[in-house]
């Protein structure tokens, strides 16, 4: 059990997988949520109040299309990242199981050795007490 498999897993990621992980991390942050709300509010304000530069008047059909495209891209990227995290967790669980089994075997060996030592001490102490009584 030299190196934890999660470290190896990170080394084996492709550029696209790393990008998907970074994108998913950003999409799940408060910074993204706040930036996205700011973007939506600015889009609506400009298209409601601007007289000349109105590219998407109310009911914001273009905004609806943009949001649908963003959702269509976000969904698969998030699923790719989650699938990879599931694979990583499965590998980590197998590694943890192997470590736990090894530790269990070592503990059982130590318990056997302690039992032998206890028996030897008990035998030794009985011999001393019998010699004192004689």
TrEMBL record:
Transmembrane segments: 25-46, 58-80
Parts forming coiled coils: none
Calcium found in the keyword field: no
Entry keywords, A to Z: Membrane, Transmembrane, Transmembrane helix
Tagged with keyword Transport: no
Pfam families xref list: DUF1003
PANTHER family: INTEGRAL MEMBRANE PROTEIN-RELATED (PTHR41386), MEMBRANE PROTEIN (PTHR41386:SF1)
Protein name: Cyclic nucleotide-binding protein
Source organism: Candidatus Magasanikbacteria bacterium RIFCSPHIGHO2_02_FULL_47_14
């Amino acid at each position: 059990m030299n190196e934890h498999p999660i470290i190896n897993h990170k080394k084996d990621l492709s550029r696209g997988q790393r990008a998907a992980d970074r994108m998913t991390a950003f999409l799940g942050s408060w910074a993204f949520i706040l930036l996205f709300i700011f973007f939506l509010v600015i889009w609506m304000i400009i298209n409601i109040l601007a007289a000349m530069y109105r590219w998407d008047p109310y009911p914001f059909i273009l905004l609806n299309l943009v949001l649908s495209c963003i959702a269509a891209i976000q969904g698969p990227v998030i699923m790719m990242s989650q699938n990879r995290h599931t694979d990583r967790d499965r590998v980590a669980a197998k590694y943890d199981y192997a470590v736990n089994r090894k530790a269990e075997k070592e503990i059982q060996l130590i318990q056997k050795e302690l039992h032998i030592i206890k028996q030897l001490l008990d035998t030794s102490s009985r011999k001393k007490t019998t010699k004192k009584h004689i």
